Amino acid sequence: GSSMKSVGEVMAIGRKFEEAFQKALRMVDETVIGFDPYLKEVNDEELKEPTDKRMFVVAAALRNNYSVDRLYNLTKIDRWFLQKMKNVVDYNTLLESIAQVNLTKSVLLRAKQIGFSDKQIAVAVKSTELAIRKQRRDFNITPYVKQIDTVAAEWPATTNYLYLTYNASSHDLEFSEEHTMVIGSGVYRIGSSVEFDWCAVGCLRELRKLNKKTIMVNY
């Protein structure tokens, strides 16, 4: 009989490709901290075959100084995407050369703008996630809430997608009133998908009946 092998997609929203790409990688697998060049070994044969782990072989190849052109010839991935991936690996290498005490506000902000998580930065500078988060807050580096008009301005949208980004200077929405937060079900897995979404939607509907303002947060 038939069986489900893969959900097959992930959605991540950002204002730079690097940001959205690293968000997506973390959403697929909670053990992945981002575009990690140390997860896989360089292997030209693996670079030629598209698999769900090939991007980490690409990361390893970039760390080992493979050029964009060489990777294009092996993978046939468009050079534009390869260059964006190279930006992430190059910045990871830069972070590895800096001790946490020497992290400046501009370096930390740039890392956040290209999708580095606090944990990912901590691994690179040999620190801890909590220490990086505290330093980031001391620098007043926090994300902004932006929204996507899901109906392309054809009529007023009331159900916009919201996302967090460090590539902004203002919020699209302000949350001045008290809201009740509903935690979403996270990524789809085989055997857990729509029914968990429906649990969250049902919770939101009941809260609205109680005249509570709500916000749903997914990871």
TrEMBL record:
Q: Which SMART domains match?
A: CPSase_L_D3 (SM01096)
Keyword ATP-binding attributed: yes
Give start and end of each Carbamoyl-phosphate synthetase large subunit oligomerisation domain.
43-166
Share an example GO biological-process annotation for this protein. citrulline biosynthetic process
Task: Please give the InterPro entries that the UniProt record associates with this protein.
Answer: CarbamoylP_synth_lsu_oligo_sf, CPSase_lsu_oligo, CPSase_preATP-grasp, PreATP-grasp_dom_sf
Pfam families to which the protein is assigned, alphabetical? CPSase_L_D1, CPSase_L_D3
Q: What's a GO cellular component annotated to this UniProt protein?
A: cytosol
Question: Carries keyword Ligase?
Answer: yes
The superkingdom of the source organism is Eukaryota
Q: Which keywords belong to this entry?
A: ATP-binding, Ligase, Nucleotide-binding
The molecular function GO annotations come to: aspartate carbamoyltransferase activity; ATP binding; carbamoyl-phosphate synthase (glutamine-hydrolyzing) activity; dihydroorotase activity
Q: Provide the protein name.
A: CAD
